[in-house]
Amino acid sequence: MSTLVRPRQGAVLAGVCAAIANRFGWNVTLVRILTVLAVIFAGLSLWIYLLLWLIIPKQA
Q1: What is the pTM of this model?
Q2: 3-class secondary structure for the chain?
Q3: Are 59 and 7 in contact (CB under 8 A)?
């Protein structure tokens, strides 16, 4: 497993989904789909996404 950093390449909005997928070795598309579904059906997850955007450092 790699460290949790937002990548410069492959980021669509803020790179949070790509960072999580890279960290755990998951498919980036799957993480993005699950994130969109979570935002639609559980509005609190949008705040979590924004918080992670601020907390996860950008790749150097």
Answers
A1: 0.83
A2: CCCCCECCCCCCCCCHHHHHHHHHCCCHHHHHHHHHHHHHHCCHHHHHHHHHHHHCCECC
A3: yes
Contact assessment for residue 9 and residue 18, using Cβ atoms and an 8 Å cutoff: no
The structure tokens listed for 36 are 């969109």
Strand, helix or coil for residue 6: strand
How far apart CA 18 and CA 5 sit, in angstroms, is 9
Q: Which residue has the higher pLDDT, 44 or 33?
A: 33
Residue with tokens 């969109």: 36
Cα separation, 60 vs 17, in Å, equals 18
Chain position carrying tokens 């907390």: 55
